[in-house]
Amino acid sequence: MIAKVNQKDFGLEKRRLDKLFSQIAKESMKVAIDSADEYVELVKSGIGHTYSPPFSPFWSPLSEMWKAVKTANKDKFWLETGGIYNAVRTKIIHKSTKLIHVFAGIMRDTDNDAFERAERNEYGLGLGPARPLFEPAKDEVSEMMATGRRLKSNRNFINALSIAIKKVYRR
After folding, report:
1. 138, 39 contact by CB (below 8 A)
2. Closest listed residue to residue 101, CA positions, set 109, 91, 93
3. Residue 106: how many CB atoms within 10 A of its CB?
4. What is the rounded CA–CA span in Å between residue 11 and residue 16?
């Protein structure tokens, strides 16, 4: 049996596969950024509250001394809380067609003061008790594996593949 390949159709399929690879990269990048944004919103939902959010372990009540300090410097504390809130964001560290590194949180080199205040709140390194937000939020959206953290659901990445295929091979 002898089979002949139509060179025109072969070239068309090669171009479609290139477009598919590019489209998968674009759609996956959107999903990665959306996942990081979900984490950021989860962390922000717990900032500025006196009670622990549902995803975080129980927060110990503030000591009377710490309440007095917070009440005496009310504007300063709200300013610091707003500084932490505004410093939490998503940032693309590295992007290529095969790999994307997305950071969600507070980068020390971007806002060192907010980073240190958030660290004191997270681990109780100041006058008040620990008020963890960042670590419990990580546990909410991802799980620790031997190779590092992985999102709990990869459904959005599977949907991204489906969307990419539909965009390239639409009839």
Report:
1. yes
2. 93
3. 24
4. 9
Measured between alpha carbons, how far is 19 from 168 in angstroms, rounded to an integer? 7
- Three-state SS for 149? strand
**For the chain, how many residues are written?**
171
Provide the Cα torsion 58, 60, 61, 63; round to 10°. -170
For residues 121 and 114, what is the distance between their CA atoms, to the nearest angstrom?
A: 11
Burial string for 155-168 (b: 16+ CB within 10 Å, else e) reads ebeeebeebbeeeb
pLDDT at 71 exceeding the cut of 80: no
Half-sphere exposure of 114 (CA within 13 A, CB side): 19
Q: Are 62 and 50 in contact (CB under 8 A)?
A: yes
The residue whose two tokens read 């507070």 is 106
Condensed to tens digits (0 to 9), the pLDDT of residues 130-152 reads 889 999 999 999 888 888 888 88
Three-point CA angle 43, 62, 48, nearest 5°: 30
Q: pTM score, two decimals?
A: 0.82
Q: With H, G, I as helix, E, B as strand and everything else as coil, classify residue 98.
A: coil
> Which residues 6+ apart lie within 8 Å of 50 measured at CB?
62
Who's near 1: CB < 8 A, 6+ residues apart? none
Q: Report the 10 Å Cβ neighbour count for 108.
A: 13
